Amino acid sequence: MKRTQMKSSDGRRQLFAVIAIVLVGMLLGTYILVRKSAPAGEDDGHGHGTHAEAKSHSDGEHHDKKATDKHDHDKAHGDEEHHDKTPSKGTHGGQLFTDGKFSLEALLAEQSGGAKLQIWLMENGAALAPSSAKLSATVTRPNGDKQELTFDVGKDSAVSREIVAEPHAFDISIAATTATEPFLFVFSKEEGKVELTDAQVQSAAITLDAASPSRIKSVLQLPGEIKLNEDRTAHVVPRLAGVVDSVRVSIGQTVRKGEVLAVIASVGASEQRSELQTAQRRLALAKVTYEREKSLWEQRISAQQDFLQAGQQMHEAEVAVANAQQKLGALGLGAGASGSLNRLELKAPFDGIVIEKHLSLGEAVKEDAAVLTISDLSQVWAEINVPAKDLPAVRVGERVNIRATAFDASASGTVAYVGALIGEQTRGAKARVTLANPKGAWRPGLFVNVEVLSEERDSPVTVSPDAIQSVGDKSVVFLKIPGGFLAQPVTVGRSDGKRVEITEGLKPGARYAAAGSFVLKSEMGKSSAEHTH
Length: 533
Hints:
By secondary structure, this protein is α+β, with helices and mostly antiparallel strands. 21% of the residues lie in helices and 38% in strands.
């Protein structure tokens, strides 16, 4: 009997314990349901409202930890329900942000024409249609410039309509508003940034300057080559075949007009001189005969016909002498002294330098062989190949500057000739500049750069030429920002060697690295071997 009572008492104690557990569970469940159904802004018993919507928070409640807006009331949250301490990588390679059940993956992806912001939405890890939330984003750059992004909704993602220009160093805040709750996420990118302290900048001898307006001469730079002045270059030919008797000059020798360069023994020269001497003797005889016949006719001893015939013969002899003299002159021959009828002297046509020699002692030469070349190098030509698109800027009489590529030398001149035809191979026209060369520094064959000067124009934004650096296939200027420099891609316009026009990518007054910018390029190359997003 006592055993039965003990058993009944034990059963009652167990039943009471079960009932107590059930009651505690029901109370906890009711409390949780009441808290979840509480309206936005209603006190949750901890002194502040629930987190059902982002509007009740100034902006930090739904930020990634990188957000820079600091909330004192964040400390009140024992949980971290609205914060990703370290955004993880998403399935598409972008940064993944999670707020409760809602997730957002953001990727700055290269599209046609530039980088755009691409966004994917998820709930409990399952993909959401991008149309299930209203999206917007703001790009804030280190200099304070802001860019608002709007989105085109696709099948599985949303892509910004606007291009996010380089450099990709900025903060991006993304707002996503679903049917029940708004979310806000912020992340940063620091591509193209070179971190340097003021002490490091000073030790690297980097000087700063500000982008400013300037008056720039429009300069068109074209490649050219120094050529012989063909108007002052002569190819000396014998004009009669013969054998070289002597050579009196060598290559590079300066000669004067009329100076004998070489002597050739020529049978043709001998025949021409013989012809002249024969004609001269006939003329002398014809003159004597004419005088005699004239005297006889005047004395009525001889017939008038004999007198007229003698006059005709004298005139024919005069023509023969003149013809022989002109032949000798055309061949560059003088009458010749006795015993030297075959002597043919080659003489310099003008003052110049012997630049080619193709004869030697005892060599047989033909009448049309160019045995010597003489050129007056006190004037040379700078020959330019002008592309068709640049022909309007190159006109006869235009002032140009010429700079040697092999050494430091420059000169000025004017365009003397612009060709009327376009070359089939070069697709350009030839232009010529006559260049004074008193010291002989401009040697034919030297490559030069020809700068064609045109009108001056005011440019609103210009920088020092030393500031322009090439990174990949882009021109950049390193902008000064807090903590270092930022590689800013720019579009370069005209340049006069002292200032360079920036048509896009830089604002007036922007501070940049002038001298020493190559150091920043080197540092950026060390920190990042390839461009990634």
